[in-house]
Amino acid sequence: MARTSAQYVCQECGAAQPKWSGRCDACGAWNTLIEEAPAETAPKGLGGKRGRAIDFAPLDGPTTPTPRRVTGIGEFDRVTGGGLVAGSALLVGGDPGIGKSTLLLQVVAALAGEARCAYVSGEEAIDQIRLRAGRLGLTGASVVLAAATSVRDIAAALDAADGPDVVVVDSIQTLYVDTLDLAPGTVAQVRTSAQELIRLAKRRGFVVMMVGHVTKEGMIAGPRVLEHMVDTVLYFEGERSHQFRILRAVKNRFGATDEIGVFEMTDGGLVQVANPSALFLAEREGEVADACVFAGMEGSRPVLVEIQSLIAPSALATPRRAVVGWDSGRLAMILAVLEARCGVAMGGADVFLNVAGGLRIGEPAADLAVAAALVSAESGRPLPAETVVFGEIGLGGEVRAVARADARLKEAAKLGFTRAIVPTRPGGAASSSFAAEIQVAEVAHVAELLALLHEPAVDRPQAWRAGRG
Question: I want to staple 221 with a disulfide (CB 3.0 to 4.6 A). Which of 126, 213, 236, 433 is the partner?
Answer without folding.
Answer: 213
